[in-house]
């Protein structure tokens, strides 16, 4: 099968009027000159792009990974395909050790569920501090414990790919070094750390800032805080929730101008109400009300998001802060790179799985291919 379009988003450029030959579920050949090809599917003025990679997502379609429900996990995997997501990291919340044991075991046992591919697990907590707890339950906060992480890794069949911690906690630097030895990427967030505490954590091996601006010590001219570290430290990635509620477009632009789009990952932080109508939902132990495109605790604080990654891409384009090429990369190659899975997803390249999406001129997801098979026609 050959599919052709006016634009194809490659690793480092946009190929115009090219085509992809797909064989046995793989991208067999990238065709630059299409003059002599005859039998092909022509997507005309549309854009062929790599499937999106969401490295921070808690749930969708009324289900949450913390429910420990394999049927719910399968529904999430299937339904986020329509959003253009073909690979993702199921994300946990702070909970008891026993609950996290059960959750990571359940995810590990269902790694090959049909739908968007589970490329790892993101543990968001429980090693956080109180001040910027967000929608995390502080009753389960604890000091970094490498033995717990090793157990979770074993229970998940080696699927833990990323863990978030607060860098001001005791024992953080040793924990980061040991986590990296396990092949786990360390993110920083839900923290009141100083700039220097964040810097020390990065020097120890941490490399991601969780939903930049949100749930972290802010930038002040005499105290740069976590935000200052996220904007300026080298060799790190900054997550952004670009729903227009978590971060003002101008503030998102500051991150892009400071870091460059090559180290900013668009994420959703989506909770179970993603793809659902307004109403009452749960995020972990907390009641959440979804209204006016936001999910909020009873206190009024934001509790995750309901944004779809395809809409985050459209937003940064429409806000005028990123080109279409940059926006698509920030939802595919860059998040994949941030957790070391860019060798298997997030890039259109010969020999890779044909997990690709087709966007129209408004950047809406029209078609989704998984392993070379059309699985969604929106």
From TrEMBL:
Gene Ontology molecular functions: N-acetylglucosamine-6-phosphate deacetylase activity
NCBIfam families xrefs: nagA (TIGR00221)
SUPFAM superfamilies the record matches: Composite domain of metallo-dependent hydrolases (SSF51338), Metallo-dependent hydrolases (SSF51556)
Organism expressing this protein natively: Peptostreptococcus canis
Family: Belongs to the metallo-dependent hydrolases superfamily. NagA family.
EC number: 3.5.1.25
Taxonomic superkingdom: Bacteria
Record keywords: Carbohydrate metabolism, Hydrolase, Metal-binding
The protein's name in its UniProt record: N-acetylglucosamine-6-phosphate deacetylase
Domain Amidohydrolase-related: 47-375
Pfam families found in the cross-reference section: Amidohydro_1 (PF01979)
């Amino acid at each position: 099968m050959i599919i052709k379009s006016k634009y194809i988003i490659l690793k480092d450029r946009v190929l115009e009027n090219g085509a992809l030959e797909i064989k046995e579920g793989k991208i067999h050949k990238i065709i630059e000159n299409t003059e002599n090809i005859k039998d092909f599917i022509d997507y005309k003025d549309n854009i062929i792009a790599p499937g999106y990679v969401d490295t921070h997502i808690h749930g969708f379609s009324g289900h949450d990974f913390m429910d420990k429900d394999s049927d719910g996990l399968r529904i999430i995997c299937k339904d986020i395909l329509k959003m253009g997501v073909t690979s993702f990291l199921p994300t946990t919340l702070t909970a008891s050790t026993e609950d996290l044991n059960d959750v990571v075991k359940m995810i590990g046992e269902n790694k090959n569920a049909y739908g968007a591919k589970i490329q790892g697990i993101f543990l968001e907590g429980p090693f956080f501090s109180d001040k910027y707890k967000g929608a995390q339950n502080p009753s389960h906060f604890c000091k970094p414990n490498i033995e717990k992480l090793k157990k979770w890794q074993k229970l998940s069949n080696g699927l833990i790919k990323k863990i978030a911690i607060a860098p001001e906690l005791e024992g953080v630097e040793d924990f980061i070094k040991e986590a990296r030895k396990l092949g786990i990427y360390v993110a920083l967030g839900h923290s009141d750390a100083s700039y220097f505490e964040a810097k020390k954590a990065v020097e120890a091996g941490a490399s991601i800032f969780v939903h930049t601006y949100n749930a972290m010590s802010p930038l002040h001219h005499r105290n740069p805080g976590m935000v200052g570290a996220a904007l300026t430290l080298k060799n790190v990635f900054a997550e952004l929730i670009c729903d227009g509620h978590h971060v003002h477009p101008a503030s998102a632009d500051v991150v892009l101008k400071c870091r460059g789009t090559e180290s900013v990952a668009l994420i959703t932080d989506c909770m179970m109400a993603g793809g659902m109508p307004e109403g009452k939902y749960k995020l972990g132990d907390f009641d959440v009300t979804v209204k006016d495109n936001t999910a909020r605790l009873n206190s009024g604080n934001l509790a995750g998001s309901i944004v779809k990654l395809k809409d985050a891409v459209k937003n940064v384009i429409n806000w005028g802060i990123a080109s279409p090429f940059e926006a698509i990369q920030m939802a595919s190659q860059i998040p994949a790179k941030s957790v070391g899975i860019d060798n298997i997803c997030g890039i259109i390249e010969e020999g890779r799985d044909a997990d690709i999406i087709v966007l129209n001129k408004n950047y809406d997801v029209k078609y989704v291919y998984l392993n070379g098979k059309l699985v969604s026609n929106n």
